[in-house]
């Protein structure tokens, strides 16, 4: 097989996958190996490939013709497009093997797997023959050099290590660096529940909050139940208020009240306000944290606010101008300024001079159908929600609308009765 003779898993993940004619198919997300009861290197069964649609499929190693720094090329033939489902006695190298605790034979040293290398055999099979390990000192991992040892030099990380005692997840979390929260959520859905919990424990509150918002309700509830209540409240605080309110609405009254009591007063007050609206109304769809400026703010100040990387592109498409106070519910709502208008105006001018006063606003009681028609009529990605007394209550973004228009359970993986052939 042309290309590399030895490939480390951490270098392989994220590489593009091409068809025989050079067409882009997707990206490598993991390797699937078969567990063995002896100390022989496990055989690599195939590659988990994430398609452009974010579906993950299994590609047998016999279909792989080339592996190099440019990516993986597949041979001609069909690929089973069923969603990848892990079978018993199979292990995901990145998802499960990395961070596994092992023992180095001879020295007896306790170590953690930080990478694994595969290479082809004469029979065209690929095996994981080498592993990179870092020794542990008690519960701590020494920050010394990484050792690369033969597979046979470690105790095989079988059922006890991968399915019993807890693993660290820092190596797996590191592989998520640079990935969008939605893609990390997709990856988590493919992991066993135990491993998902370990990853949740290793993620910081802000990152976990972003990922949690992209998961199906059942997975959200499972992870929130796994966290202790103090940390669960911290993660809810880190979520966008509308996402946090949606999750709290799924809890029992007792659990909801406990989390609201543990949250910071300002955060819990926003969540309570959103919980007061029906989920399929403008009030239930909105976020209470749009970009709000006073009329004496300059165009330059407005542009500085929309440049904030923590603000979504949809929310950054429009700033709202109101009398003080600027926190929602604000003082009198005066109008909005579209980002295109901000880019065309001199930076020293006031936002009050660039207002769009003609755009109508949505009342918090507007039903989902009315909100949908509003976005379609005005070709917007963000819209103001204003009460009868002209107070700005929040803003709705188009992604909030789509979440409620798509079929229930759209985030969940397709359930299939067959899986990709393990060739």
UniProtKB/TrEMBL annotation:
PROSITE patterns: CBS
SUPFAM superfamilies named in the record: CBS-domain pair, MgtE N-terminal domain-like, PRC-barrel domain
One MF term in the entry's GO annotations: magnesium ion transmembrane transporter activity
PANTHER family recorded: MAGNESIUM TRANSPORTER MGTE
UniProt keyword annotations, A-Z: CBS domain
Protein name as it appears in the record: Magnesium transporter
GO cellular component, one term: membrane
Pfam families reported for this sequence: CBS (PF00571), MgtE_N (PF03448), PRC (PF05239), SH3_actinomycetes (PF26205)
Species per Swiss-Prot/TrEMBL record: Actinokineospora bangkokensis
Organism lineage string: Bacteria, Bacillati, Actinomycetota, Actinomycetes, Pseudonocardiales
SMART domains: CBS, MgtE_N
InterPro entries in UniProt: CBS_dom, CBS_dom_sf, Mg_transptr_MgtE_intracell_dom, MgtE_N_sf, MgtE_transporter, PRC-brl_dom, PRC_barrel-like_sf, SH3_actinomycetes
Domain CBS: 286-353, 355-412
């Amino acid at each position: 097989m042309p290309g590399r003779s030895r490939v480390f898993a951490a270098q392989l993940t994220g590489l593009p996958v091409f068809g025989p004619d050079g067409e882009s198919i997707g990206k490598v997300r993991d390797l699937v190996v078969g567990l063995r009861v002896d100390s022989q290197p496990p055989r690599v069964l195939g590659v988990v490939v994430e398609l452009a649609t974010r579906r993950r499929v299994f590609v047998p190693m016999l279909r792989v013709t080339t592996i190099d720094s440019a990516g993986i090329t597949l041979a001609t033939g069909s690929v089973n497009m069923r969603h990848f489902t892990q079978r018993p006695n199979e292990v995901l190298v990145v998802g499960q093997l990395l961070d596994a605790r092992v023992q180095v034979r001879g020295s007896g040293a306790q170590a953690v797997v930080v990478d694994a290398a595969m290479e082809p055999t004469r029979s065209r099979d690929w095996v994981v023959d080498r592993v990179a390990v870092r020794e542990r000192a008690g519960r701590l991992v020494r920050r010394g050099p990484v050792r690369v040892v033969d597979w046979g030099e470690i105790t095989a990380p079988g059922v006890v290590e991968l399915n019993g005692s807890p693993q660290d997840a820092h190596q797996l979390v590191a592989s998520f660096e640079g990935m969008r929260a939605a893609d990390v959520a997709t990856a988590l859905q493919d992991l066993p529940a135990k491993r998902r919990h370990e990853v949740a424990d290793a993620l910081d509150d802000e990152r976990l909050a972003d990922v949690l918002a992209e998961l199906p309700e059942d997975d959200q509830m499972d992870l929130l139940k796994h966290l202790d209540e103090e940390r669960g409240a911290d993660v809810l605080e880190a979520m966008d208020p509308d996402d946090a309110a949606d999750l709290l609405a799924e809890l029992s009254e007792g659990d909801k009240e406990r989390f609201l009591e543990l949250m910071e007063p300002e955060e819990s007050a926003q969540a309570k306000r959103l919980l007061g609206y029906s989920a399929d109304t403008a009030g239930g769809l909105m976020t209470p944290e749009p970009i709000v400026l006073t009329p004496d703010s300059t165009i330059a100040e407005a542009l500085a606010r929309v440049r904030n990387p923590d603000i979504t592109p949809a929310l950054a498409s429009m700033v709202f101008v109101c009398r003080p106070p600027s926190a929602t519910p604000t003082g009198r709502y005066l109008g909005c300024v579209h980002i295109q208008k901000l880019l065309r105006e001199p930076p020293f001018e006031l936002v009050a001079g660039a207002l769009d006063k003609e755009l109508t606003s949505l009342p918090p009681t507007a039903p989902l159908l009315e909100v949908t028609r509003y976005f379609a009529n005005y070709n917007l990605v963000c819209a103001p929600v204003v009460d009868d007394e002209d107070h700005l209550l929040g803003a709705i973004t188009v992604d909030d609308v789509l979440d409620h228009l798509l079929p229930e359970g759209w985030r969940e993986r397709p359930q299939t009765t067959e899986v990709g052939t393990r060739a």
